[in-house]
Amino acid sequence: MPALRLPAPLAIRAAVHAAVPRPADLPWLVGYAVAFVIAHHVAAGWGGQSYYSLLYPAAGVRIALLWSRGPRLTLSIVATELAVQTAAGIIVPGQPDWLAAAVGVARPGLVYGLVVWLVRYVAARSHSSLGVAPMPLGLAAVSAPMAVALVALPWSLLSPELTGVVGLRQTIASLTGFAVGDLLGVLLIAPPLLWATQAVQDGRLSLHRPALRQLAVLGEAGVVLGVAIAASMLLAHIGLGVPATPALLAVAWIGLRFGRTMGWLAILIVAAMVLPYTASDMPLADRLEFHMSLASIVVVGYLAGSFADAQVRAQIALSRRDRMLFQAERLKTLRAMSVAVIHEISQPLSTLAIEAKHLHEITVSTDPDIAQTAAIIDRKAAALSTLVRRLRRFGGRSVDEPSALPVSALTHAEAKAARVVLEIAPVDPDLIIMGQEIELAQAIVNLVRNAVQACDGRVTLSARRHDDQLEVTVANRCPDRRGPQPGMGVGALVARAIIEAHGGTLDRVTDGDGTVRATLSLQLVGAVA
């Protein structure tokens, strides 16, 4: 069946309707306008005559809003930025090249919205690590500044009067500063804004007295970061420059040890020391070097913190899975026990129901009280028998379906029976029969119990191959016991019924020395029936 496609006018109308901001989005857009004005003003401290600002916090505010509210607000964000820049006098309608200036203002917002939509689209359909948080946000945070710089490259080469740069070298340097400034703005501003927004929505943003463990964490992080900063300052003091490696290692250690939150705090401290220094009058190459080093520290810090948080989540998931597996194992054991109990009581209940029905039939014409009592016993016994049959059906198909069973599993299981001493001969593990484990185990249990009741509680259990048959023998020697054995003989009847239902036979003989042997024969797996 072909996919349903809207006609072009309807599709355009649907897209426009989706792009129109909703009433709930208006406070967010107003707040974005205020934050954009402040962030744009802050970025002027790291700007220059022939290059963009090397720190552009407005990009972080932009991507935070797009990521939290969705890329459908792209056109609204672009319209807000155009309005702010028009009010600031950067765009003056009617003047020459005002349309090109408007396009230059709208271009970053459009590219950011497209990148966020594309990353979300790919992450929603990806089965790899691209779809696992926080990988999608990190991918969008790094891809958006690079995409804007690439889109701006043709404009800078074809219309150098718009950017004030001339020549390929100045153009590359200007766009590199643009990408680094947007990247720093995104990495420094977007994550804390998103975390704070999520915490407010979840009601987790509250102040409380720090615990002793949290103070220890702060102390360790402070010592590690302090040592790294001191090492960098020492190297700078002796004329070896300002290497970023000590700070990078310290931030990575803090992120790996304590997660993204502590990693971001360490990043914030490093940025607070670097950015005021680069805001002074210094060559573009030195500024760019400092900001690229800071960007690498920020990226490594977030990667380390995200890895640590992912490890914590994985550990929680593993603990939850282990608890679920433990509960499943307990349920499996309980199910096996309940099925065994059902099989244990099913035969006596069936016999009781038959006898109760017979009692009811022969007492119909007797005293009314006796007849009524017999009817009640018959009804209750029939209800119990029906309940047991329903429970057996509820046990599932796997309970009633035959399965391949090693005989050793049936015999050795009985060695743990209470107050029963069994002499079990070695059993070949290759002896395999097809049957229902619980029923066959119950048959062997009944034979063993009969043997225990007949003498002193010591019986011999053995299994061997005879042609294509398996023979399991339960033997007990009672030379001093004569006459009938105690009990009703129901166990032997149940065992015989189970074995015959599996296509086998049960024989019971008494040797001259008084040894009673009960031998059951069953078909081996692989033999021709």
| SSE pattern | HHHHHHHHHHHHHHEHEEHEEHEE
Largest sheet properties: 5 strands, mixed
Strand order of the largest sheet: 2-4-5-7-6
Strand proportion? 5-15%
* Main structural class: alpha+beta
- What's the alpha carbon Rg, rounded to whole Å? 41 Å
What are the low-pLDDT stretches, counting only 5+ consecutive residues below 50?
1-6, 396-400, 411-418
N/C terminus separation: 53 Å
Whole-number average pLDDT? 77
Strand elements, count? 7
As a percent range, the share of helical residues equals 55-70%
Q: Count of helical segments?
A: 17
Protein topology:
Layout (H helix, E strand, L loop, with lengths): L7 H12 L6 H18 L13 H13 L4 H14 L10 H27 L10 H24 L1 H4 L4 H35 L9 H26 L7 H14 L1 H19 L5 H79 L5 H27 L2 H4 L2 E4 H6 L8 E4 L7 E4 L1 H18 L3 E9 L2 E9 L12 H12 L3 E6 L4 E9 L6
Written account of the structure:
- Strand 6 (505-510) and strand 7 (515-523) form a beta hairpin.
- The chain has 17 helices and seven strands.
- The model is unreliable at 1-6, 396-400 and 411-418 (pLDDT under 50).
- Helix content is 67%, strand content 9%.
- The chain has a five-stranded mixed beta sheet with strand order 2-4-5-7-6. It has a two-stranded antiparallel ribbon with strand order 1-3.
